[in-house]
């Protein structure tokens, strides 16, 4: 069963009233990264390639704290701390307005027991402007059986100073 937005909100922080949807909680854009070097996926490991945070628009005539993204692929970090409770699995979908603007957020499985500020692949198929802190995605939680809880390399990621 998919849980209600109110239930999901108990596992996302911060979660303002505006973010709480009937069936999930909206996630905001915190940082956009551009990958500089190849990563590596092997049979017994992986590494994430070097990346750099994309600068925010600083020209006065444009909206401050805004990413002006040309066509390309970026890694987007969400602004919220997410915790996937026992007995659940999480899925993140793009906000439909992103998709309607020819952009897409590709995501993977969010495991029971994971805690952190996760990331997604932001695909920009047509130039777009996204303000930092704007809602770009939605997390839903589904009840799911599992034997062990998440204990991988991304556990507790990006929580410094939070
Ligand atoms: O779109 C997603 C999907 C998942 N996650 C988080 C939650 C998930 O529990 C964690 C690890 O994902 P996964 O298990 O797919 O990572 P992996 O590549 O298998 O690495 P590891 O084995 O170290 O976990 O990353 C994200 O940040 N973004």
Automatic annotation (TrEMBL):
Membrane-spanning residues: none
SUPFAM superfamilies according to UniProt: dUTPase-like
Record keywords: Hydrolase, Nucleotide metabolism
Entry keyword Hydrolase: yes
Annotated GO biological process: dUTP biosynthetic process
Signal peptide segment: none
Pfam families associated with the record: DCD
GO molecular function annotation: dCTP deaminase activity
Keyword hit for Ribonucleoprotein: no
PANTHER family: DCTP DEAMINASE, DEOXYURIDINE 5'-TRIPHOSPHATE NUCLEOTIDOHYDROLASE
Protein name from the UniProt record: Deoxyuridine 5'-triphosphate nucleotidohydrolase
């Amino acid at each position: 069963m998919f849980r209600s937005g109110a239930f999901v909100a108990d596992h996302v922080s911060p979660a303002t009233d505006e973010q709480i949807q009937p069936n999930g909680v909206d996630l905001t854009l915190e940082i956009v990264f551009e990958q500089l070097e190849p990563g590596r996926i092997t049979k017994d490991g992986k590494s994430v390639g070097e990346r750099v945070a994309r600068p925010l628009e600083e020209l006065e005539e444009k909206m401050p704290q805004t990413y002006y993204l040309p066509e390309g692929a970026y890694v987007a970090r969400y602004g919220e701390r997410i915790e996937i409770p026992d007995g659940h699995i999480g899925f993140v979908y793009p906000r439909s307005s992103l998709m309607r603007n020819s952009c897409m957020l590709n995501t993977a499985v969010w495991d029971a027991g994971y805690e952190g500020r996760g990331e997604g692949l932001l695909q920009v198929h047509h130039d777009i402007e996204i303000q930092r802190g704007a809602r770009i995605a939605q997390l839903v939680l589904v009840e799911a059986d599992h034997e062990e809880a998440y204990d991988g390399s991304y556990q507790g990621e990006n929580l410094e100073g939070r």
